[in-house]
Amino acid sequence: MNRDDFLMLNNDYIYFDNGATTFKPNSVVNKVVDYYTKYTANSHRGDYDLSQKVDYLYEETRDKVKNFINASSSKEIIFTSGTTMSLNMIVFGFMKYYLQKGDEVLITKAEHASNVLPWLELEKEIGIVVKYIPLKDLKVDIETVKNCITEKAKVISLAYITNVIGDIRPIKEIAKLIHENNGLIVVDGAQSVPHIKTDVIEDDIDFLAFSAHKMLGPTGTGVLYGKYTYLDKMKPIFYGGGMNSRFESTKEIEYKTLPLRLEAGTQNIAGVLGLSASIDYLNSIGINKIHEHELELKNYLLEKLKSIDNITVYNKNTDSGIVVFNIDNIFSEDTSRYLNHYHIFVRAGNHCTKMVKDELGIKNTCRISFYLYNTKEEIDKLIEVLKNNKDLYEIIL
Amino acid sequence: MNTNLRREIIVDNAENPFHRGLVNKDGYIKANTHNESCIDNIDLYVKFQDGKIIDAYFEGEACAITTSATSIMIRKIIGKTKEEAISLMREYYNMIEENNYDETSLGELNAYSNIAKQPSRKKCATLPFQTLEKTIKISEIENIN
Q: Is A349 part of the contact surface with chain B (CB cutoff 8 Å)?
């Protein structure tokens, strides 16, 4: 991995907010620019060379995504605007018709808003019951899940890795449990697909949602994976061009087969092609190496933080590159403003998981989330600044 | 106000805020304001009697600017009539927006006179008064004087 591959790293920035979004390597930027400067055309629309080239690259990306998450078929890969859209399609395009009044959907209080609010809306709409699996030491514990699965439990919807505490959930075991109950598992992969190997067959995942921009790709692009048998039953949220095969004034309508039926309208082609380049980049390094690097950085940071008295870390025992902390008696946002003064960027707040305060016992924290381009030298600079935190108010006020 | 004094006032009030945490909420009007662009979140409790603010407390989590401004505001509004409180609020907003304002009436609130230089912090500094305005409106609607 070469830091020169990222123009953003030429700035004097220490970027520790990769859980929010990531920097883009030149190969991704160039791929997007090439689409706009060398072969702009719509996909699936024309018989001319440019359009065919775009078709080829677009569908090639679908294959790359399929291989990246080890899906059985590229027909199971739908391009969306991101994790949020993917999860909304799962809930309002599939679950709305699959579930019945009284059926239970299990989530936790540590889920991202995108994996909470669609379910709560569906609860209001059709009377499903959303239940929270209690966390044990902030983690999802398999025995607790077992106890939560009643006869009525039809869906478990969880992040593979949470964006607040960064714990990796035992998705394979959970999938087995809910399948034994004739239920389905929905996985929010926004924080996991960019960082650990995803294998939807090995884990037996029914639906998976993730975003390109958190894995070096462009914003506004994401993926919905679904097992063919379920995806084929999903009703489109959008109807229009690109997804129909014919319609007549007599109101006879025929829609396309998967995957195009679920991709109405002109897609974010530049974004999809950028995602293709980001997958190439991640593959060239290896997802396992990326994960190892992040863990090494996390352990290094935790060790260094021991030398500072007034800092509390909330998630020492999780296995991803996320560290959540506060300086004692300082509001997290003031800490992030202080670090910002030194061009160190961390996230302050509740990280879109407004219910996790019930579990964490604290509403707001600072979050550091590493990625492949972060270094120990950057951590050393962070530690130096944190050590001087008695100057915090002098800097921010 | 010089920088050191300004900072001292803000830090003192942020670290040891006045009237934070109310045990018995009977008779208090509550309003909440949260900052949509960040994470400041304040509940303000105000008790009105005979057209006056006779007591006020706050709860919530917020940055040093919001917490301190709330603390100072509460200290200043207790004992004031609603009209006097609104007039104080107007002078404060004038200062924040860099209009002409009456410096003497604002006292320690002058610590935020340079906040206009940091536009992103304006919301933090005005959050307590926005919340106060809500409690006054509720008191009018519910006819609580």
A: yes
